[in-house]
Amino acid sequence: MSFQLPETLTNLSGVIYGVVGFVAAATLIVKLSQGPNLDAIPAIGSNTWLGSWWAGFRYLTNAQDIIQEGYEKFNSTPFRVAEPHCWTVLVSSRAQVEGLAKAPENELSALEAINNEIQLEYTLGPEIHHNPYHVEVLRSHLTRNLEVLYPEIRDEIVSSFADVLDLRGNGEKSDFTNVCYLVLIREPSEWKCVPAISIIEKVICRTNNRIFVGYPLCRNPDWIDLNIRCTFDVFKSGLLIARLPRFMRQLAARFTNFPQWIKRGAKLLGPVIEERQKHLSEYGTEWDDKPNDLLSWLMEDAEGLESTPKCLTTRILVVNTAANLTTSHAFTHGLFYLAANPQYIQPLREEVEGVIEKYGWSKATMSRMRKVDSFLKECQRVEGMAMVTLSRIALKEFTFSDGTVIPKGAQIGAATRSLHHDKRFYENPEVFDPFRFAQMCDEDGSGSRYQLASTTPESLFFGLGKQACPGRFLVANELKTMLAHVVMTYDVKLEDDAKRPPSWHFDSMIAANPRAKVMFRNRVD
Ligand code: HEM
After folding, report:
1. Residue 469 marked ligand-binding
2. Does residue 330 line the site of ligand 1, with CB under 6 A?
3. Residues 415-436: tens digit of each pLDDT
4. Which residue has its alpha carbon closest to ligand 1 atom 27?
5. Phi (first) and psi of residue 38, to 5 degrees
6. In which residues is heme bound (predicted)?
7. Whole-number Cα distances in Å, 208 to 17, 110, 204, 218, 319
8. Does the interface ipTM go beyond 0.90?
9. 326 lines ligand 1 (CB under 6 A)
């Protein structure tokens, strides 16, 4: 008996082969037709056009081994790896990592590197790439306001966990606005198995949007769905467009969903913006009960066309893009390590209980939770989000302090994952040691150098220097509050007491396993 695919599937696979073939051919053209001369920098694998093209495809699934090979072989001197559409030069010595971080934007550009990677100008629009004023707004307002916004962050975390987990029959108090409860009053509940990443994405998206656009929009299911899906689409479409030759990108952009995402967003956010604009024109920049959130800060700094509902909506979407997927995967890594290692739950609980009993929930309290902080930082060290960070494009020829020359047009970055797994910096680097950073803080005596939000040349998951992630202090407070809340409120474990679900690698990106599930129940002891 012969097996026949249904006609729709045959057609679909034809389209898929067509697209894959087209992207492969286009990638080859890109590779052959452009690129700076990098002959002076040693390459991993073949250096020929065709060989490097094949190496670029191998990189999609083997980036970790390829980068590690270069890191060990060239012993802290720069080397290059082939990506499908370009070469990337990787550095790892302390001097060169610091050189990357300190280089001015008009020499080694972080903005061009992000655009090169995910082509924001063809997805959420050229204004986002050419006028990234939201980055300054985040740097100046967000971190400064974290202390006063903390009660809202915590409130949203508590209520969104209760909503998304929906552990019925648990008798949890429904008044989550009172964030001072030490432990919520509970009744026992059954174990419930949930898809980890999708519940964490909702908690994070709601919490971020509580301080991006405020309550009640942050709880609107349509707004949450839009932001989760649009974030994913930015990465998916951006990565695809980046593999096309330059002259085809504008055309490809016409087939994306971004005009619809922005229209759908403006429909939900537009009325909020118009209401606030009315207040602004009546009372100026200060009025009673003026919301203290990202939307208000953006509205104050937006100039010209940027203050239209459509442009403000696009800004909010782009910050969601930077914030949601990254933070969700960071927490999900932590959840998997916790569920796979229940022996760590008790020491974390003891720390959280001790600190909260004495000081209550606040931003200041969070910095007292050394083990919680260390646990999350160790998850970023061993797993993280990217094998390469500090990505830059050389806008002109750049010379490092040791004389190494990076030609104009080259893409460059730091070999972050290899540095995070180097025994010169971390004892037994392959071992997950949740409280290693707490111990390093104690030994160092500085208190902050090894904390989650701190960046050093050996701890690069938020980048380093003046362009390091502007959201990292928010991230640290969110992640710590979430972990503290989870250990205080729930028991967690993996289905059938399985092993920790392995992370997924694609290109140099690292994702918490998107298929894995985690079991939750109300805390019993
Ligand atoms: C675990 C979560 C996160 C991780 C691991 C992360 C990591 C990073 C890294 C590595 C960079 C590039 C830094 C560099 O090139 O030197 C970056 C940039 C950026 N991040 Fe984050 N991030 C996270 C969450 C967030 C959040 C919550 C926000 C917003 C509230 C945010 C906003 C941004 C923005 C706007 C940039 C671009 C900065 C620029 O162009 O100068 N990130 N992030």
Report:
1. yes
2. yes
3. 999 999 999 999 999 999 999 9
4. 323
5. -115, 20
6. 469
7. 39, 24, 6, 8, 10
8. yes
9. yes
